[in-house]
Amino acid sequence: GTGFVFHGRTGTGKGVLFDKVIKPLIGENYVTELTVDNLSDQFNQWLETSIIVWLDEFNADDSHSGDALMNKIKNLVTENTVTIRGMRRNPIQKRVYNNIIIASNHTTPIPIDINDRRFNIAPAQENMIQITQQDIATIKTELSHFATFLREYQVNEQATNRVLNNDAKAQMVAASMTSHNS
Q1: Phi and psi (nearest 5°) for 92?
Q2: What is the value of pTM for the model shown?
Q3: Is 160 within 8 Å of 118 (Cβ atoms)?
Q4: Neighbours of 27 (CB within 10 A)
Q5: Which one of 4, 14, 65, 127 is at 20 to 30 Å from 36 when CA atoms are compared?
Q6: Bridge partners of 31?
Q7: Per-residue DSSP letter, 124
Q8: pLDDT tens, residue by residue, 18-67
Q9: Which pLDDT belongs to residue 153?
């Protein structure tokens, strides 16, 4: 019922998080990386197996149909069943288990309404970090321990369906209002 937005300047680790942590933890067959163009495509067979949908270098303003694209994303965040269309296949209704993560270098990658109930906004990361090959090797060796930690972590399932109303979200709401009112 909720999606995440990670945004900030280049070199803050968004790609490393996806490639070196999320993909190996979830499994390559269950993670889909999309761009605005891919998401705009009429075919969405990738939804059948996706647990994580990573919208990379995302900026809703890059789409010619920004509102339609945002409605599609909102639908993917909240709906349990969707119509899946594969090339040369009839559309089918299926239950899906996807989780949306938007990664962007833009300040306001998606417009956020003041009453939004779908998106958790992480604080914008403004400081570039230096990730060495040793850091990457360390991530790989610690990943199984992290997986064990996650497996044993006590999750409050009700809390996972509520969005955080933090300063980062308030800033994105304000920026969205400014950009839509100008």
Answers
A1: -135, 150
A2: 0.89
A3: no
A4: 12
A5: 127
A6: 52
A7: P
A8: 999 999 999 999 999 998 888 888 888 999 999 999 999 988 777 667 78
A9: 95
Taking only the tens place, the pLDDT of each residue in 97-126 is 999 999 999 888 889 999 999 999 999 998
- DSSP class of residue 16 equals H
Cα separation, 48 vs 94, whole angstroms: 8
Q: For 45-58, write each residue's pLDDT tens digit.
A: 999 999 999 999 98
Q: Which of 115, 116, 85, 80 is nearest to 98 (CA)?
A: 80
Q: Which helix (H) or strand (E) holds 6?
A: strand 3-7
**Left if phi > 0, otherwise alpha if psi is -120 to 50, otherwise beta: which for 11?**
left
Identify the three-state secondary structure at position 129: coil
> Mapping DSSP to helix (H, G, I), strand (E, B) and coil, where does residue 171 land?
helix
